[in-house]
Amino acid sequence: MAEVVIVENAEAAGALVAREIVQLIERRPDTVLGLATGSTPLPVYQALRSELAGRDVSQVRGFALDEYVGIDPHHPESYRSVITREVVEPLGLDPQRIHVPNGAQATIQHAGEDYEAAIEAAGGVDLQILGIGTDGHIGFNEPGSSFASRTRVKTLTEQTREDNARFFDSIDDVPMHCITQGLGTILKARHLVLLAFGEGKAEAVAGAVEGPLSALLPGSAIQLHPHATVVVDEAAASRL
Ligand code: GLP
């Protein structure tokens, strides 16, 4: 079973995970981080600002989980822009070493394979940060995703498009498709760290940690991983 760590609040979770990341980078300057978007990992990135200040991070590498398909990479809500704004720039990482799946229509046929090859060439992800959707999705692996899936194009559910509409002018502007690392890709990372805060995530967290292994709750895939840590506040742990 995944190790569950209950912390006081999101800030404490951010500090805890940031310290773990710093230790990794101290051991291996070219550590490969698995980066997630959404509001949940923000406290980790925030804590890393001070933890990494003054350290040499020029070798650190990173792979984001997912991207919208057909969005202009310069759109402020493309995951490329979000990762640049929240992670690359404030932490002073080398943008050449931080990868986001390519959601451009023209190359989408082979974008999944290309991304898998890039992760493989980097030697795999050392620590994968994960959030979880209220329906149990991780990355953009919505309910029904295969545990063996690799980076591929998926259709966003209506629920996820509604949840993410807050970042766009209207729901009509939320892309219909995404490209996401598969559950099988995520499971290959050497350490999974899933974070969740607030009552709204309690059901998904309980399903992921204690529920039956089910494609209907993609987060339950973490039970197949030998080194998964779940960092939650009391509210998100309330159904455990
Ligand atoms: C999006 C992202 C997921 C994220 C989820 C939850 O759909 N693709 O990676 O885990 O939202 O978002 P939040 O952390 O804002 O609750």
Automatic annotation (TrEMBL):
Q: Which PROSITE patterns match?
A: GLC_GALNAC_ISOMERASE
Pathway-wise, it operates in: Amino-sugar metabolism; N-acetylneuraminate degradation; D-fructose 6-phosphate from N-acetylneuraminate: step 5/5
Which reactions fall under this protein's catalytic activity? Answer: alpha-D-glucosamine 6-phosphate + H2O = beta-D-fructose 6-phosphate + NH4(+)
Site location (Part of the allosteric site): S145, R152, K154, T155
Enumerate the InterPro entries for this protein.
Answer: Glc/Gal-6P_isomerase (IPR006148), Glucosamine6P_isomerase (IPR004547), Glucosamine6P_isomerase_CS (IPR018321), NagB/RpiA_transferase-like (IPR037171)
Catalytic residues at D66, D135, H137, E142
User: Into which family does the record put it?
Assistant: Belongs to the glucosamine/galactosamine-6-phosphate isomerase family. NagB subfamily.
> HAMAP family annotated for this entry?
GlcN6P_deamin (MF_01241)
Free-text function comment from the UniProt entry: Catalyzes the reversible isomerization-deamination of glucosamine 6-phosphate (GlcN6P) to form fructose 6-phosphate (Fru6P) and ammonium ion.
Designated name of the protein: Glucosamine-6-phosphate deaminase
Q: Which organism is it from?
A: Microbacterium algeriense
Q: Identify the coding gene.
A: nagB
